[in-house]
Structures are given as structure tokens and as C-alpha cells.
Amino acid sequence: xxxxxxxxxxxxxxxxxxxxxxxxxxxxxxxxxxxxxxxxxxxxxxxxxxxxxxxxxxxxxxxxxxxxxxxxxxxxxxxxxxxxxxxxxxxxxxxxxxxxxxxxxxxxxxxxxxxxxxxxxxxxxxxxxxxxxxxxxxxxxxxxxxxxxxxxxxxxxxxxxxxxxxxxxxxxxxxxxxxxxxxxxxxxxxxxxxxxxxxxxxxxxxxxxxxxxxxxxxxxxxxxxxxxxxxxxxxxxxxxxxxxxxxxxxxxxxxxxxxxxxxxxxxxxxxxxxxxxxxxxxxxxxxxxxxxxxxxxxxxxxxxxxxxxxxxxxxxxxxxxxxxxxxxxxxxxxxxxxxxxxxxxxxxxxxxxxxxxxxxxxxxxxxxxxxxxxxxxxxxxxxxxxxxx
Length: 389
Hints:
GO terms for molecular function: metal ion binding; N-acetyldiaminopimelate deacetylase activity. This protein has helices at residues 11-23, 32-44, 105-122, 144-150, 153-156, 210-228, 266-286, 306-320, 338-344, 372-386; strands spanning 49-54, 58-64, 72-78, 128-134, 159-168, 176-177, 181-184, 186-195, 199-200, 235-243, 250-251, 254-263, 290-299, 302-304, 325-326, 347-353. The chain has 389 residues and is α/β, with parallel strands linked by helices. The protein folds into two domains: 3-183 and 301-386, Zn peptidases (Aminopeptidase), CATH 3.40.630.10; 186-299, Alpha-Beta Plaits (2-Layer Sandwich), CATH 3.30.70.360. The strands form four sheets. It has an eight-stranded mixed β-sheet with strand order 1-2-4-3-5-16-6-15, sandwiched between helices. Strands 10-12-8-13 form a four-stranded antiparallel β-sheet, with helices on one face. A two-stranded antiparallel ribbon has the order 7-14. It is elongated, with a radius of gyration of 23 Å.
């Protein structure tokens, strides 16, 4: 028997909460019903210090341990859904057309609520656990994590360390994955407007064709990764949007190119911004055109701090055993706005197994309810590990 058995009594109730949240998804900064549901549950557990309305719909609730004075640690769960048409065909599928919980945030919220119920009933720790229910993780800058930090939650609630958790398809149920240092990439976004001189498609020699220039720029951006960065470093430049003429026989005056940049080091973000502009300008001007360039810095690298990572590993292994915690999992270039919180305070971010399911952000994705007691147990073990009586 492992430590998780202690938390199986909560599974049925927390599954009902999770499926209710899945049926009623809400998008960024509009999680009004979700926030109301969370606040009412927290109050029903006997938690008296509940602050709502942070970053529109965010919540911070404090549970004071009975072991005496001590620090306050933050436990963060995100609450928002995605603008995706659900195709899971589950009985608890989304009731809101075009919106679904495609990234497991319904499970994240439910697991932290389950931990809140347990911690509020036992209070077998010193100091304080600050439960952070965050809106708008899925949006571009400024996201919910950024706004909660900007609105001062770390100082306001005296949070000294902060921890996050995310579901991960492909990791077995009952297993966890984590790593020291950079664990998820930064996210920046860019727009390039290629300026030319349009005309009829039958007389391209009378134009400065921004479509041709744009094609050269798209290819040129890839050489910044393959030929101008260290192959041992991680940089991804992906063009994801391309807008030109809507007519078959028209060469437009301009073409719009947009995309995303992912990196694992801040110096690569600086490199990308400078070199992308230089490359786009050089190519465009060589063909007689020019560019307007916008580079928007969004989410920083998600970085796991040494002490907090070891604490997270210890808590997870106390729950499921040594072999079920991979402490050197592969880095991912996906971004996560928990990074703003771990910039403001030292912290660690762990992944919890969802089993062999489709990936997150897939229309058929669904959080695996068998993971709930493991997530609840991890949060409880983490609090009792860091704040022992």
C-alpha cells in the first residue's frame, strides 16, 4: 500500500467536481461560474480567509496549520478552458459549444480543491498554505499568472515559495515527472508585415512582389536556428500565420507573417528578436521591399529552483515511491505562465501522469479521473514535507 490510499476516499466526490467543471468550461478572465464554484467549496471546508476577484476571477485562499508559526507556501492551479470544439464523446462533455477543457485545468482545479478539503480538516502542518486558483493561463500576454503576480499576491499573502502541477498524457497514472532547471520554454510572438508594390498577377515584373519576399523570409528564419545558434541550445522559430491576397489574379501590396519563438535561455530571446529583424529587413530590401517588425515578449522560461525541486521530488516519492518519480524528464518547449510566479518566488513545477491518452489541446482529450487521488496526495504531502509539525 502506498501513501495514495489515504486520499482515495475523496476520489468520488472530487470526480463529481471535476466533471461538473468539465461540463461548464469558461475562457480567459471570464471564469465567473468556475470562481464561484471554487469559492463556495472552499468556504464549505471551513476556510475563512478567501480572497476573490484577483486578476478578474482569480482566488487565493489561506489555510493556517495547527503546528504553530511558519512560512507560507503557494500551491497553484489554473482554471480556464480552450476555444476548441470537444470530440471526447464523454457523458460529461462540454455544454458550451466551441469551448472545452482541453488542457486538464478542470482536473488541476479539482485536485487542489480536494487537497484543500483534506488540509482544512487535518491542518497537520505549521505555517500556512496559500491556494492559488488562477485564471487565463491559455492566453497571450498579459496572462492570468502575470496579472496575479503584478497585483501583488506574493507580498500580499507572504508567499515564500510557489509550486505548480500539470497533467501529462504519456506518463502512467500514479507516476510523476520533473527536472531541475529549465523545464518548459519561453514564448514570444512576432508579426512581420512585408511591404511591396502590388499589381496584376500577369505582370509581376511591374510589381515588388511581397509574396515572393515573404517566402524567402520564412525560409531565411529557419537558418537562424540551423546555422546561427549552437546546436546544443534550444531555439524554435515557427511561422503559424500567413496572409496575402484573397484574389487569384492579384499581387498584393503587403503580406503578413506571424508566428512564435520558443527558447530555453533569455539570451536566445534577445538573439531571436535582433536577428529576425535583421534577416527580414535584409531579404526584403534586397528585393526592393521593406518590413515592419513586431516582437512581443510573452511567457518566460519555466525554471525549477534547486531546493524547491528537491522538495517536490521528496513529496512525490513519499506518496508513490522512488521508481514512480522521474526526476530527469525531458524538457518541453511548450510555455507555461506559472513561470511568472517562479520568477517572483523560488518554486518548482511537476507533471502528473494522465495515462496513454491523446495529447492536451486535442478535441478528444479528457483529464483522467484516476489521477485525482495522486494529485490530491501530492499537494498534501508537499505541504506536510515543507511545513512539518
